[in-house]
Every structure is written in C-alpha cells, then in structure tokens.
Amino acid sequence: MTSSSFALAVAAPRRTGFGSTWGKYAALVATSFRQRLADRAVLIGRIAFYFIILLVFARLWEAVLSRGGEGTQGNTWTDYVWYLAVTEWIMLSLPQLYVDIESDVRSGDIAYHFARPVSYVGSKLAEGFGDMLLRFFTLGVAGVLFARAFAGGWPSSLGGLLLAVPLGVLSGVVMLACLALVGLCAFWIVDCTAIYLIWQKLMFVLGGLMVPLSVYPGWLREVALHSPFSAMLYGPGRMVMATDLSLALAVAAQLLAWGAAAGALLVLLERRARRIVEVNGG
Predict the structure, then answer these.
(1) Rounded distance, CA 78 to CA 57, Å?
(2) What is the pTM of this model?
(3) pLDDT tens, 73-89?
(4) pLDDT tens for each residue of 257-281
C-alpha cells in the first residue's frame, strides 16, 4: 500500500470496527518504516554519530579505569562502554515526533487530521513507531559491532544484553508518548523547542545517558531514581552489568506505569486540543 492510498483509506468515513482501526495504525507503521528506509542519508548520519560517541567514550573509560580495572559495583570499563551503547541506541532511535505535531498545529493542518476516523495522536505515534523500529534495528546492529570493537570484549552479562533489547523498545514507546505530549503543547505555546530541550536535558542527567546512576552522588542518584527518566535509560542500560530477571521485570513495570500515565495525559490533551479547534471554527 502506498502512502497516498493509505491516506485515502484513513480519510474515508468510518464503516468498520475496532479491528479495521488497528489495521490502519499497522498500515501507518509499515508505511513510515518503508519511507524512512528510503531516506538512507539520515540513517547513515545517525550511525556515524553513534560511532563517534562510542569511540570517544570508550577511550575515555579505558583511560580512567584502565584495561582490567573496576568501577563502581565491580564493573569494568568494558561494561561502561556497553552501557553507553544501550542508552545511546535508545536516544538515537527516537524520531523528532514533536516537530511534526508542532508543524501541523502551526499550519492549521491539524483540523483536517482531526476530521479523520482515527485518533490524530494515535496516527502520529504509529508513524513515529515505524520510524523508530527501523532505527532500532539498524542502530542496534551497528551498536553491537561498534561496542564489541571499542570495548575489546562483551559485557559482563550477555543475558542482560538480551534483556536490554525489549526494555529498550518499551522505553522507546514511552519516550514517543512523551514527545507527543511536547508536540501537543504547541496549542498553547506555539513553539515547543524550549519544552523539548528541558525534557532532553532531564533525560540526559536524570536518565543517566552518558554514565550509570550508580556513579552519581547519593542525593542526585535518589532524585533520579524517583523520576521517570531513570526507568527509560538507566533501567535498560544497567542490564548489561548484571543479569537480573526480577530487576528487568521491575523496570518493565515502571515503564508500563509511566507509559500509562503519559497515555492518559495524551488522551486528555488531545480532547482539549479538539475543543480548541472546534471553538476556533476548525
């Protein structure tokens, strides 16, 4: 199905039920995946950036801990490289979903999207998920190759590395919902860049993007662990340091809880956004 034919299908009057609606979302995921696959320059650029980040930090950790040395909780510099490979894999796989939503609001196209028989936010999340899936796969393969080469070996927990994959995908879905929330703020503040930058920096610091939270000062670690950001990055990343199924399940539960909260807020904001469009005459 081409993107144009699917657009006609989505814009058509609703004649079918629940299964057909989910079929449209699935078609959006597939269409977005194919479109991003054709945009190879962006993928190559992200892979190159991923390469540079891992190379720089691998050399840094090697210099700080030295080969065979140990960091906090008995982890080697190799583990820290693999930790960064996981957290950067998640962050670099995220599409700029908030920009698309902000653009629709600014241009007024949002009114046409709201007239379609599927949720506007749901369709944007489906498109973003298709884009993210492609990046997860390509960057995941590249990340394993880069980390294995730069770290000089495998992480302490190969089983944990496998657990990090589904947790990373679940984290990506929750982060997509957060980016959709940022985009919907355009109804009230027009330019969402400031909110995105705040969210991004909190993700970097409280999420433990560059280094595990275990190396943070005690007070900052406690603040981070009680925020949603630690579950999204530190949660999947720490899996490579020790295989712990119960911990993985706890991280998954946290992600599901935060995802449910973000989903509920998305429903509320979309309803309010619809009312704003209706009051202003579409």
Answers:
(1) 11
(2) 0.87
(3) 667 888 999 999 999 99
(4) 999 999 999 999 999 988 888 777 5
The answer to whether 102 touches 186, Cβ cutoff 8 Å, is yes
Closest CA to 79 of 61, 94, 64: 61
